[in-house]
Every structure is written in structure tokens, then in C-alpha cells.
Design a protein that fits this description.
Blueprint (H helix, E strand, L loop, with lengths): L1 H27 L11 H14 L2 H33 L1 H15 L6 H9 L3 H25 L3 H9 L4 H35 L8 H10 L3 H29 L1 H13 L1
Helix pairs in contact: 2-10, 3-4, 3-6, 3-8, 3-9, 5-6, 6-8, 8-10, 9-10
């Protein structure tokens, strides 16, 4: 019963502000005659026709999500792999730090023309754009998480002969997992933005492509439906990431709760 009450309270807290903002938007635009800001009721009434009945969910939204998933997965593998290696070696960290600081300061959208030269204008370019932005928060959080591994635990693992893959998985990755998941959550937000930006350049489908096409043809209501759909997808993906975080870091949240209870 307590679990059901807690879930209900969390759901209400998460939806309260978005619903309130939509209600304000609805009231402020109810009598709007502006071509560029149509009533919210008109926008919501057009969502099904624009995205469901026309088949755009399959031809535009699904490819966008696949690119996002592919780019985000590659960023996680690359960021965690490099982060563990760099965080575990002070010499490697000192060697790589200037280059990492230089590369992460470059805004990923600036790389779109460069990536188009080397990877073309297909899905490969769009995935690489997503990777170029998502990888940095994952990489840097992983480095910090590995550096923060408790030295007592490191010495204990050495004394008990825990080495190789077992040490990597059960000590390094597990100890750094709170920071790694934090980087993944930050990287996902960046990935959604870059997904849209990459599809605005030389694309033939995708959510970003559809929104920019609506804007160029002055289909303002349809453009607003795309923006709302993008916001909804962002909310759902963020919710899924929080559920993933709660499951993977169940031990961590339980430990924090136990520490608060003891205090």
C-alpha cells in the first residue's frame, strides 16, 4: 500500500507542472487569431492526422528513435570504455586531459558539416553527430567515478586476489556506476537535441526533418504538433532512464536511505 501511494505521489508530482503549463497555454490561446500561434486545441486536434493517420510515426519518428538509440549506445560503450581506462591510470589521464578539454569545448552542431564530408549525408553522419555530443558527459563522469573508487576496497580486492574482469566489473564499474548513470542521463538529453539538429541538414526523413519542412512550407499548426511530439518523446525517454536508474542502482539508493535512517 505504501509502495502504491509512493508511486501515485511521484506520478502526480511529475505530471502536475506539465499539465498546469498546458492548461495555461490552452487558456491564453483559446481565442488566438495569430497565424503563428494557433489555439492549443487546434494543435492537439491535428496531432492524429499529422503523425498517426499519415504514417509519419513509422516513416519519421521511428527512424529518429533508431538513430538516437544507435548513437547513444555507441556513446555509452565508448565513454565507459575510455573513461575506465583513463580514470584507472594517472599517467594516461594527464596525457589525455588537454586533448579531452579541447575536444569537448567544440559544440557538436559545428561538426555536422565536417562529418558530412567524411560520412556523407546518410544515417551514419546523424549517428556520429549524436555520438559526438553524448560521449562527453558519459566519459567525464566515468573518469571521475573511477577515480573516486575507495582505496580500502581496492586494497581489499588485491589482498583477496580479485583481478582481471572480476575486479573491473565488481569493483570498478560497480563503484563508478552512480556517476556513469548520471552521465548517461545527461548524454541522453544532449542526444535528443542533436538527433533533431542532425536531421535538419540534408535529411529525407526524421522528426527534425518534418519540423523544418513544416516551418519552410508555413504549415505552422503541423510544426507545433511536431514540437509537442518531440517534448513528449523527451519526457518518456527521461522517465524510462529514471526507471533504468532506479533498477540498476537499487543497491545505491538503498544504501543512501539506510545512511539517512542511521543519522
Amino acid at each position: 500500500m505504501n509502495i502504491a501511494r509512493r508511486i501515485t505521489r511521484t506520478t502526480v508530482a511529475a505530471l502536475a507542472l506539465p499539465i498546469a503549463l498546458l492548461a495555461v497555454w490552452w487558456m491564453l490561446t483559446a481565442d488566438s487569431d495569430s497565424y503563428y500561434l494557433p489555439p492549443l486545441s487546434e494543435i492537439l486536434a491535428s496531432v492524429a492526422d499529422v503523425w498517426v493517420h499519415s504514417g509519419r510515426l513509422g516513416t519519421d519518428v521511428l527512424p529518429s528513435l533508431l538513430r538516437l538509440f544507435g548513437g547513444f549506445t555507441l556513446a555509452v560503450l565508448l565513454g565507459v570504455g575510455l573513461g575506465v581506462a583513463i580514470g584507472s591510470s594517472p599517467r594516461l589521464r594527464a596525457f589525455c586531459e588537454p586533448v579531452l578539454e579541447f575536444l569537448r569545448a567544440i559544440p557538436p552542431p559545428v561538426l555536422v558539416p565536417v562529418l558530412m564530408l567524411f560520412a556523407g549525408i546518410g544515417d551514419t553522419m546523424k549517428v556520429l553527430v549524436i555520438v559526438s555530443g553524448c560521449v562527453w558527459p558519459i566519459l567525464l563522469n566515468t573518469v571521475e567515478g573511477v577515480r573516486a573508487v575507495d582505496e580500502v576496497q581496492v586494497e581489499t580486492a588485491r589482498c583477496y586476489g580479485v583481478r582481471g574482469p572480476a575486479r573491473l566489473w565488481h569493483l570498478i564499474i560497480r563503484s563508478a556506476s552512480p556517476q556513469i548513470v548520471t552521465g548517461m542521463r545527461q548524454g541522453l538529453s544532449i542526444g535528443i537535441i542533436l538527433m533533431v539538429i542532425s536531421e535538419m541538414f540534408a535529411a529525407s526523413n526524421g522528426l527534425g526533418f518534418s519540423i523544418i519542412q513544416f516551418q519552410r512550407t508555413f504549415a505552422v499548426t503541423e510544426m507545433w504538433t511536431g514540437i509537442l511530439l518531440l517534448g513528449l518523446l523527451g519526457f518518456l525517454l527521461a522517465t524510462a532512464m529514471r526507471i533504468f536508474e532506479r533498477r540498476v542502482l537499487k543497491w545505491y539508493f538503498g544504501l543512501r536511505q539506510a545512511q539517512r535512517g542511521s543519522n
